[in-house]
Specification:
about 75% helix; 2 strands; two-stranded antiparallel ribbon; mainly alpha
Length: about 140
């Protein structure tokens, strides 16, 4: 696969993940207190498909995810939160853990993290789209 093909493939995967993540985030904003039900399991899993690889990378585990380019997304988040990165990193890990509970309530900090992840994923999609336009 050519370099352009690889970039296009990454763009396609990341933009699909962004779309699903954004839909799940909208649902979560309506339902502040979440109980794991057949309706919410899919929504929670959409968030975790993006959060888990980010958390794995933070834990210095090798992520097997092909859902996002987590290195780029983390680099964007890290750049935006360079001053408070150690605390922010811990909050991401707490959020990942919370999303695994049977019942939970998302805090303002959790929503800020989810929004930041969505913004970083959007920025990565924009970067990949720009690179496709340049043909490299």
């Amino acid at each position: 696969m050519s370099n352009l093909g690889v970039i296009a493939s990454k763009f396609n995967i990341n933009s699909k993940s962004l779309r699903e993540f954004d839909e799940a985030l909208r649902f979560m904003k309506k339902e502040r207190e979440i109980k794991r039900t057949s309706e919410t399991v899919d929504v929670i899993n959409r968030l975790l498909r993006v959060i888990n690889p980010i958390a794995d990378r933070i834990k210095e585990k090798l992520s097997e995810s092909t859902v996002i380019t987590e290195r780029s997304v983390i680099d964007i988040i890290k750049e935006r939160h360079s001053r408070d990165w150690p605390d922010y990193r811990e909050n991401i890990l707490k959020l990942e853990s919370k999303l695994g509970y049977d019942k939970f309530q998302l805090s303002e900090v959790d929503f800020q993290i989810l929004n930041d992840v969505a913004d970083a994923l959007d920025a990565e999609c924009a970067n990949l789209f720009h690179r496709m336009g340049k043909g490299r």
